[in-house]
């Protein structure tokens, strides 16, 4: 009983700062939408669709971060800090390569990227400008994302949360300055939002550098390890982390496809979908916190060689995920009046939004459970292949084809299309729970000699 109490305490210590970080992140996104509401409904829709493309890069970086966490958390449990620095170098190598490609595409072919999501010329024009100005920030973000993932794995989660909080507060402040033209600044609208995001990511990177210099003991933020070769560790990264990256990429591309499907159903559907994404993120803050904490805590325990304790920790995390999923759904229902009070949409867009909010009152529970198990617990033991195949089949053999069929072949109403897309989380539950209770995911993946 005492050990279980200590485990709950440890999960809370790791999860609460992450939840706080997610709350700030979601609050900033909400503030962005509220401020863009004064620019116009087209601005809200354009930024949402443009962020669908940026979201693909984010999920790629998130996949790299969780791949790093799989290795770093276990090596931290083992007490091997030198290997963690090598893992950091591998992460930077891949993260910067992906970010550089994404930034180049945003600068060179922004209109082409926007046409993937919509055929509305107004949205394409606005969104393409947003992508061009946000491009440099992707490089700053890549370096910070890897380093903060390492910080979370070495029990410095509060530090990473402070870094994220500073960046996000700067982001919302600069958004207000550039959208409303405060302090004599020009009113830049959507371009101002992009400049604010890029600037805040630069501030975050500077913060990471300062932490690296002054925080002792810790892990240094250095790019020199990018150019070193560690064959065994790189092999482990490819075999275990790459499926995690593929999993998150398949998931994010599927949600990007959802955006593209909704994006071709009219501006009212796009506006409602833009706002529901923000509200869902608010409802999922606890879920994502528990999911990330699960991967770190279970990974550290498995790295210590305590497989049975790792399994027990996994079961506790699952119970917490169910609770946070239910609470997240209730939160969505509770803030519905506020959502309509602070948005100015057309009557049809309001109707779509109300329906989407009700769907998310239960959909968040599915997200909570799957995030905890697939992206947290399974990966903690190096088991990322199951999640990759599970989401690849679920999203691309079921959900995306179903959405395309409903929207463009059967030409069902917007509400039906959205409802069918939101069945994706529950279809995979039988296989996910079966795999969890098999306990095959519980493995110590550390090595004694790492080259």
Report what the structure shows.
The protein is mainly α and 451 residues long. Helix content is 83%, strand content 0%. The chain has 17 helices and no strands. The protein has helices at 2-36, 41-78, 81-108, 110-115, 121-153, 157-180, 190-214, 231-263, 267-283, 285-303, 307-334, 336-341, 347-380, 385-409, 414-421, 424-427, 429-438. Helix 1 (2-36) runs antiparallel to helix 9. The two termini are 41 Å apart. The model has no long low-confidence stretch (mean pLDDT 85).
Task: Provide keyphrases for this structure.
globular, 451 residues, mainly alpha
The arrangement of helices and strands along the chain is HHHHHHHHHHHHHHHHH
Fraction in beta strands: under 5%
SS-based structural class?
mainly alpha
Could you list the spans in which at least 5 consecutive residues all have pLDDT below 50?
Answer: none
The rough form would be described as globular
Radius of gyration in whole Å, from Cα?
A: 21 Å
Helix content: over 70%
Overall strand count: 0
Q: How would you sum up the major sheet?
A: none
Distance between the termini: 41 Å
Q: Output the number of helix runs.
A: 17
Integer average pLDDT: 85
């Amino acid at each position: 009983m005492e050990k279980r109490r200590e485990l709950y305490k440890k999960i809370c210590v790791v999860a609460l700062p992450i939840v706080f970080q997610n709350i700030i992140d979601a609050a900033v996104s909400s503030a962005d939408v509220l401020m863009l509401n004064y620019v116009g409904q087209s601005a809200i829709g354009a930024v949402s669709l443009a962020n669908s493309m940026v979201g693909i890069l984010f999920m790629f970086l998130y996949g790299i971060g969780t791949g790093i966490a799989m290795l770093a958390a276990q090596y931290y449990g083992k007490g091997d800090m030198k290997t963690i620095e090598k893992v950091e170098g591998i992460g930077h190598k891949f993260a910067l390569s992906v970010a550089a490609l994404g930034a180049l595409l945003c600068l060179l072919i922004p209109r082409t990227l926007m046409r993937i999501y919509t055929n509305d010329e107004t949205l394409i024009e606005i969104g393409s400008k947003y992508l061009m100005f946000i491009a440099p920030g992707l490089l700053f973000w890549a370096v910070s994302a890897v380093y903060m993932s390492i910080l979370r794995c070495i029990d410095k989660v509060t530090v990473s949360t402070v870094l994220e909080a500073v960046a996000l507060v700067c982001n919302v402040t600069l958004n207000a300055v550039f959208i409303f033209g405060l302090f004599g600044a020009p009113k830049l609208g959507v371009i101002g939002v992009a400049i604010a995001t890029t600037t805040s990511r630069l501030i975050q990177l500077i913060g990471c550098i300062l932490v690296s210099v002054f925080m002792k003991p810790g892990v240094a933020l250095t790019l020199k390890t990018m150019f070193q070769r560690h064959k065994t560790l790189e092999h482990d990264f490819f075999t275990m982390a790459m499926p995690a990256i593929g999993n998150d990429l398949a998931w994010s591309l599927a949600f990007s496809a959802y955006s593209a499907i909704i994006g071709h159903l009219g501006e009212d559907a796009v506006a409602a979908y833009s706002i529901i994404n923000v509200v869902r993120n608010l409802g999922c803050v606890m879920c994502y916190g528990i999911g990330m904490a699960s991967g770190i805590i279970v990974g550290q325990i498995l790295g210590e060689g305590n497989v049975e304790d790792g399994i027990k920790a996994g079961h506790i995390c699952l119970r917490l995920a169910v609770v946070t999923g239910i609470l997240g759904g209730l939160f969505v229902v509770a803030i519905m009046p506020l959502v309509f009070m602070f948005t100015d949409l057309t009557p049809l867009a309001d109707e779509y939004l109300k329906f989407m909010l009700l769907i998310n009152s239960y959909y968040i529970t599915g997200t909570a459970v799957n995030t905890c198990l697939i992206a947290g617990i399974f990966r903690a033991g190096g088991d990322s292949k199951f999640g990759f195949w599970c989401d690849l089949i679920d999203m691309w053999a079921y959900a995306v084809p179903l959405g395309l069929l409903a929207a463009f072949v059967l030409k069902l109403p917007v509400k039906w299309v959205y409802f069918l897309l939101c069945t994706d989380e529950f279809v995979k539950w039988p296989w996910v729970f079966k795999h969890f209770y098999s306990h095959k995911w519980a493995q110590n993946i550390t090595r004694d000699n790492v080259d």
